[in-house]
């Protein structure tokens, strides 16, 4: 069995460190993030990602997947901590915390790490502000077999607890990159790739558009949509019909409707 | 100009009443809910729904739509309150509150109020727990021209601040009903209507399914999906393909992907 360290007090420096990872400023400095739940941690392990620190509630029920995870973390030289549920609740900020959480090193989010040939679909979000939407886009990306999510300009932090939670593990299975618009366009034009904007203005119906792989589906900010100048640089602008009073969809919903259309059409 | 009452203190009973509407227990008792922002309130007015109480920040900028709203509320015998931004922030629970909010009477959510002939698409959610997902489904419903959203069993409160906010005004344009499963099935079978389950098990691809209007698209709980016995009572079970490691989509995303497919196919 792997060696464990038991944490007894709320004021323990390790507890303070773990709690600080819920705060963006500290995450940025440490370049580490927190993910909760056996399922997420198992998804991570199956994607060959192990936590540097594994945190377990002392009152947890035994589970074979947790035992395997513990062994894997120990074998990789990681740290294993045990603490009471009420201390773990302080760490994760949830009243009924999951029995296990992990501290992971942030991924390298440079565009150069993206190999566009690995998937016919890539999701791209510009100035996406809501971490729940961001996590949901990762989850949708996984579902459509996308390669990953590229974040343009100032987006919500993909390593926040909310985004990681909403991704339902897809943070570990999808590639993640972050870039300014100019940098992204330069990278994109170095190889094959069709850039498709979810437009609120263009008359092209999203069901009639000629999608081509690798297809980069771009969704804009929750309240502003995409800047005109960005849309103009896209290869295709498509519109999802709006039959009601509203003029737009939730950004993650718009991304999903486009992604499933592209998936179906590219599979024909 | 409409008569106004100015509220000066945090401890004013009206402020306490307004704040209490953020709490489900109080909302239930009062059968009233809070909606924020000029845009939402304008959506409401254009749907012939006026707030019983209109709350405005004393530091607001003048706006023609706000002036019209004020007149309409006064003409309907409603109350108009003015308060400092910091008091309004306490009411809405947001640091930078919108300059205007309204207190509305909850709608009648009995199934009997639904006229299924008014739309080819209806969204149905079972045991939906997340108010953001619920509001997003209302918003999507508006976008596809659905008639409304029917909530089955124990769902999140559609009148919570989070759900109202996520609906982006669709809480006022979509019909809303709430019922137990048995009650819903009995009502449904009294007239025409195809009940379509978003299934995680059935092999029928959602793009191949024979949708028929009025089409009731049913999505299940965020973590459990639909109970088997419910799926069995549906006319059609359809599956959205999952190409990755995850076995499900976000519930609001699944509803939207189905709704847009049904919209396109029923419009053919």
Q: How are the SSEs placed, and which strands pair?
A:
The structure is a homodimer of 268-residue chains.
Chain A: E1 5-7, H1 13-20, H2 24-30, E2 32-36, H3 38-46, E3 53-57, H4 64-75, E4 79-83, H5 85-92, E5 100-105, E6 121-126, H6 131-143, E7 148-152, H7 161-167, H8 170-173, E8 175-179, H9 181-188, E9 194-198, E10 215-219, H10 228-232, E11 236-238, H11 251-267
Parallel strand pairs in A: 1-4, 3-4, 6-7, 6-10, 7-8, 9-10, 9-11
Antiparallel strand pairs in A: 2-5, 3-5
Pfam families (chains A, B): MRM3-like_sub_bind (PF22435), SpoU_methylase (PF00588)
Family (chains A, B): Belongs to the class IV-like SAM-binding methyltransferase superfamily. RNA methyltransferase TrmH family.
Domain RNA 2-O ribose methyltransferase substrate binding (chains A, B): 34-110
How would you describe this structure to a colleague?
Two copies of one chain form a homodimer. The mean pLDDT of chain A is 94. The first copy, chain A, starts with a strand and ends with a helix. The relative contact order of chain A is 0.14. In chain A, helix 4 links the parallel strand 3 and strand 4. The longest helix of chain A is centred in the C-terminal third of the chain and has 17 residues. Chain A has 268 residues and is α/β, with parallel strands linked by helices. The first copy, chain A, contains eleven helices and eleven strands. Chain A folds into two domains: 101 residues, 60s Ribosomal Protein L30, Chain: A, CATH 3.30.1330; 157 residues, SPOUT methyltransferase, trefoil knot domain (Alpha/beta knot), CATH 3.40.1280.10. Chain A has a six-stranded parallel sheet, sandwiched between helices. In chain A, strands 1-4-3-5-2 form a five-stranded mixed sheet, with helices on both faces. In chain A, helix 6 runs parallel beside helix 7. Helices cover 37% and strands 20% of the residues of chain A. At the A-B interface, helix 6 and helix 11 of A face helix 6 and helix 11 of B. Chains A, B: One of its GO terms (molecular function) is methyltransferase activity. Chains A, B: Belongs to the class IV-like SAM-binding methyltransferase superfamily. RNA methyltransferase TrmH family. Chains A, B: It comes from Novosphingobium kalidii.
């Amino acid at each position: 069995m792997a060696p464990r360290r038991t944490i007894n007090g709320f004021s323990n420096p390790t507890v303070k460190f773990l709690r600080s990872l819920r705060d963006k400023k500290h995450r940025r400095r440490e370049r580490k993030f927190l993910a909760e739940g056996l399922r997420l941690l198992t998804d991570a392990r199956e994607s060959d990602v192990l936590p540097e620190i594994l945190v377990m509630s002392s009152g947890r029920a035994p589970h074979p997947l947790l035992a395997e995870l513990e062994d894997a973390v120990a074998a990789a030289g990681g740290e294993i901590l045990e603490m009471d549920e009420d201390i773990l609740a302080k760490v994760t900020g949830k009243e009924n915390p999951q029995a296990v959480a992990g501290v992971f090193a942030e991924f390298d989010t440079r565009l150069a790490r993206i190999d566009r040939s690995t998937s016919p679909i890539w999701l791209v979000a510009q100035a996406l502000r809501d971490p729940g939407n961001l996590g949901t886009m990762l989850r949708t990306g996984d579902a459509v077999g996308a390669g990953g999510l590229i974040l343009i300009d100032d987006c919500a932090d993909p390593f926040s607890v909310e985004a990681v939670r909403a991704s339902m593990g897809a943070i570990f299975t999808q590639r993640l990159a972050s870039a300014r618009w100019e940098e992204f366009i330069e990278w994109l034009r170095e190889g094959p790739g069709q850039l498709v904007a979810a437009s609120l203005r263009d008359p092209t119906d999203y069901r009639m558009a000629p999608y081509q792989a690798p297809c980069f589906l771009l969704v804009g900010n929750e309240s502003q949509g995409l800047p005109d100048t960005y849309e103009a640089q896209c290869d295709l602008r498509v519109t999802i019909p709006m039959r009601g009073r509203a003029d737009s969809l939730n950004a993650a919903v718009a991304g999903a409707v486009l992604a499933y259309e592209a998936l179906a059409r590219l599979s024909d």
